[in-house]
Amino acid sequence: MKTGGHYDAAVIGAGLSGLAAGIRLAHFGKRVCLFERHSAVGGLNSFYSIAGRRYDVGLHALTNFARSGGRGTPLTKVLRQLRIDRGELELFEQRRSRITFGARAPAELAFTNDFSVLESEVARAFPGRIDRFRALAERVRATPLSAEPSPVSARGALRELLGEPLLEEMLLCPILFYGGAAENDMDFNRFAMLFQAVLLEGLSRPREGIRAILRLLVDKYRAAGGERRMNCGVTRIRAQGGRVASLVLDSGEEVTAVQVLSSAGAVETAALLEGGSAGGTGPEAPAGRVSFVETISVLDRQPAELGWGADTIVFFNDSEKFSYAVPPSLIDTRSGVICIPNNFEFGPAGGLPEGVVRVTCLASPERWAGLSPEAYREAKQAGYGSVLECGRRFLPPVADAEFSKVTVATDMFTPLTIERFTGHRNGAIYGSPVKSPRGATTLQNLHLCGTDQGLLGIVGSMLSGITMANQHVLMGPGAPEGR
Ligand SMILES: Cc1cc2nc3c(=O)[nH]c(=O)nc-3n(C[C@H](O)[C@H](O)[C@H](O)COP(=O)(O)OP(=O)(O)OC[C@H]3O[C@@H](n4cnc5c(N)ncnc54)[C@H](O)[C@@H]3O)c2cc1C
């Protein structure tokens, strides 16, 4: 076997957590290399081209919005630790988003990046519950940002604090859709982290979407001297004496590293260990099963011209009871998320040249995986129509013929697409329901970062990469001064 080098740190995966960890380590003079199986960086949050048109995967919105001058928020911490100036990441705020329940006479809560808008919406729709809602927001603010799970269930806490089932379901809907690794509930710390990220801090995006973020991260990494091997996954982790002895690459080379960070996921990393589960990352971390399909419709005009100019994100559910679970069928069209990226406040310089509407619904990874190639193609075609139709029920009406006329390109991804391009079993976007907050594994110098460490989303996964790099590589012997 060829030897392919020795590193202070090797990082498995060049998604957002891997890139952030790499930048942090390279800044402190560590010899670091990112090993990425695919040709593109970004993992769950990347982009691809079809017929010359570029599509984003992942990014609906960057959560954790913070205005310049804001201190101590997750986004400002990420920018400071990665030495990114606020101006380098030009962010545009959401216009308005809403949570809407029930198709005919919907219960609705609008929100913006100004939390008082949501407060006044709750006061309007649930006048008897506004004080309780404020108490919930206070409890969320008082919960420190941490990937450590709380023994308290979010549903249980909401029931006790709000005493209003519909409001409970409506608040859980965006939080579960933007971070629920388990079905129907999550622990209260995770709920608080996501409530803070989505509803208290809010949503924004760079004009160019995820490409702008990835370009910035890759430039920082390169400038700091980080190395990366694309199209070069890790096929095996060799262990000896309770430590990683070497990494075997897809190319057949073998590399060594003092410390290894893996963003591949807990179960996925365990599967790389020679000897399989005997050296696993922990028997209690099962593979996640919650996954989505998403349709993308590209329009020859701005969505505002169809009367769809008001909403940035719409979290919808067609009844008063919200089910966030793996459906028995291919897709659950009862609930979902609509994202209209044109409806961020791009200001006078203008926004995106084409209209884009994305609709996301829960999907069954097992059902999609069970289809023959031909049945898969047919299901994708039928699924595009049904997902789009279910989303359009929650937008101002547009005739089918008109919508078809203005649609210039479409695409759809399924749990299989996500699994193929990220390696996450079952296409589980939020990974295993059991997280590893300290990133610990059964090997002393192998640590998890990203989705299965427990900090989620674009900002969360970058923070996870930074935190794990700080704790497991930079805080070790010979740590650099002046961090
Ligand atoms: C459809 C969708 C919509 C989303 N929307 C949003 C949103 O609007 N806002 C938001 O904040 N977040 C969103 N997210 C979540 C966000 O994308 C993720 O939380 C985040 O990108 C996770 O980053 P990560 O680094 O932990 O993992 P990943 O992105 O999964 O990165 C892991 C990387 O490891 C690589 N890899 C795996 N195995 C190996 C191996 N053996 N060898 C080498 N490389 C390997 C993979 O190819 C991948 O590049 C969305 C995700 C999806 C899929």
Explain this structure to me?
The protein is α/β, with parallel strands linked by helices and 483 residues long. It has three domains: 3-59 and 210-286 and 432-474, FAD/NAD(P)-binding domain, CATH 3.50.50; 113-201, no CATH class; 289-422. Helix content is 33%, strand content 22%. The protein has 14 helices and 18 strands. The protein has helices spanning 16-27, 74-81, 115-125, 130-142, 154-162, 165-177, 188-201, 210-223, 266-272, 365-369, 373-392, 400-406, 415-422, 457-474; strands at 3-12, 32-35, 47-50, 53-56, 91-93, 97-101, 107-111, 204-206, 227-229, 234-240, 243-249, 254-262, 291-299, 313-317, 331-339, 355-363, 407-413, 446-448. The strands form four sheets. Strands 1, 2, 9, 10, 11, 12 and 18 form a seven-stranded mixed beta sheet that branches. Strand 10 and strand 11 (243-249) form a beta hairpin. It is globular, with a radius of gyration of 22 Å. The chain starts with a strand and ends in a 9-residue tail after the last helix. Mean pLDDT is 92; it is low at 477-483. Flavin-adenine dinucleotide binds at residues 12-18, 35-38, 43-45, 57-63, 233-234, 263-264, 268, 272, 292, 294, 418, 422-424, 429, 450-451, 456-458, 461.
